[in-house]
């Protein structure tokens, strides 16, 4: 299971815990779970951004290959990749 999937499961679980704590009147614990939920959502945003960036890199590499450029010859940040 990927870390992204684990984070999604965690976020879903936290939503349930927030609801449960609100119903039971434990507002402080609901607030704690909300903080944890926000952290999970930030991690999911980062994962989404990484996927988007990797897609861009993959598209560029594909275009280079279509034009006969070897991806190994491309220089990234001053070092060959």
> What is the overall silhouette?
rod-shaped
Number of strands: 2
The helix tally amounts to 2
Ranges with pLDDT <50 over ≥5 residues? Answer: none
Proportion of residues in β-strands: under 5%
Question: Can you summarize the main beta sheet?
Answer: 2 strands, antiparallel
Helix-strand sequence? HHEE
Q: Report Rg.
A: 21 Å
Domain module count: 1
The amount of helix comes to: over 70%
Strand order of the largest sheet: 1-2
- The overall average pLDDT, rounded, is 90
Alpha-carbon distance between the two ends? 29 Å
Main structural class: mainly alpha
SSE map:
Layout: H1 3-24, H2 27-66, E1 75-76, E2 79-80
Antiparallel strand pairs: 1-2
Helix pairs in contact: 1-2
């Amino acid at each position: 299971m990927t870390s992204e999937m684990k984070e999604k499961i965690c976020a879903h679980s936290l939503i349930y815990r927030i609801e449960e704590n609100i119903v039971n009147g434990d507002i402080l614990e609901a607030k704690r779970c909300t903080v944890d939920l926000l952290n999970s959502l930030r991690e999911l945003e980062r994962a989404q951004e990484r996927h988007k960036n990797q897609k861009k890199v993959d598209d560029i590499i594909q275009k280079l290959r279509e034009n006969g450029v070897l991806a190994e010859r491309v220089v990234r940040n001053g070092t060959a990749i």
